[in-house]
Design a protein that fits this description.
Blueprint lengths: L1 H21 L4 E3 L4 E4 L13 H8 L4 E7 L4 E8 L2 E6 L2 E7 L4 E4 L5 E2 L6 E7 L8 E7 L6 E7 L2 E12 L4 E10 L5 E7 L1
Parallel strand pairs: 1-12
Antiparallel strand pairs: 2-7, 3-4, 4-5, 5-6, 6-14, 7-8, 9-10, 11-12, 12-13, 13-14
Length: 195
């Protein structure tokens, strides 16, 4: 009986490890997700910063609206920048959804990306024995974000590839996530941060 229990515990542990490894997501520091005007990578606004800072960096929004979010029981201010939405809870940036390339995401002096950027294809050539053709593997990448190639729908938007990455700040891992959606032409069509 003891041998069966040991095997069962081992099997469950192995399954749990495999399951969490398959679905593990990358943690992205919020400091690398500044919102910047396209073409200006000298200043940006990050999650947790004020409405005033966002307006200073991005300018006046096209429109402002208030929306009550029942799930969180909170009133959210929505700043609309020509179809790009910034969400403010208690007057600080708590999320965003970008649908065009007028706002880019990234870090000052680091990597930046925006809607309409494309997935790149890395080609790896592996030589085999003499006389055999080499093995060529193609892998789609978007900077260091992990990609899952599959058709789907998120928040009403159809996609052909998706990247989901959870966020962290200096103090802890957060419940928020960065989601990147790509169309069938390998073009980034939507960038969002939400809880």
């Amino acid at each position: 009986m003891r041998k069966k229990n040991s095997f069962l515990v081992y099997a469950i542990g192995l399954f749990a490890f495999s399951f969490t490894s398959i679905f593990a997501q990358t943690r992205i520091p919020t400091s690398s997700l500044l919102l910047m005007k396209a073409g200006d990578v000298t200043q940006g606004v990050k999650l947790g910063e004020s409405i005033g800072k966002a307006v200073q960096i991005l300018g006046q929004p096209t429109s402002i609206s208030d929306e009550y979010w029942e799930i969180d029981s909170v009133l959210v201010k929505i700043y609309n920048y020509k179809g790009n939405f910034l969400y403010f809870t208690n007057d600080v940036l708590s999320g965003f959804e970008l649908k065009d390339s007028s706002i880019q995401v990234g870090s000052i002096g680091g990597i930046t990306f925006k809607v309409k950027d494309r997935i790149t294809i890395k080609i790896k050539k592996t030589n085999r024995r003499p006389g055999l053709s080499p093995i060529i593997k193609r892998k789609k990448t978007f900077f260091d974000f992990s990609l899952v190639e599959r058709d789907g729908k998120s928040r009403g938007i159809e996609y052909s590839a998706i990247s989901v990455n959870y966020l962290s700040d200096a103090a802890a891992n957060l419940d928020s996530r960065l989601e990147l959606l790509f169309n069938s032409n390998d073009q980034l069509i939507n960038i969002s941060v939400s809880e």
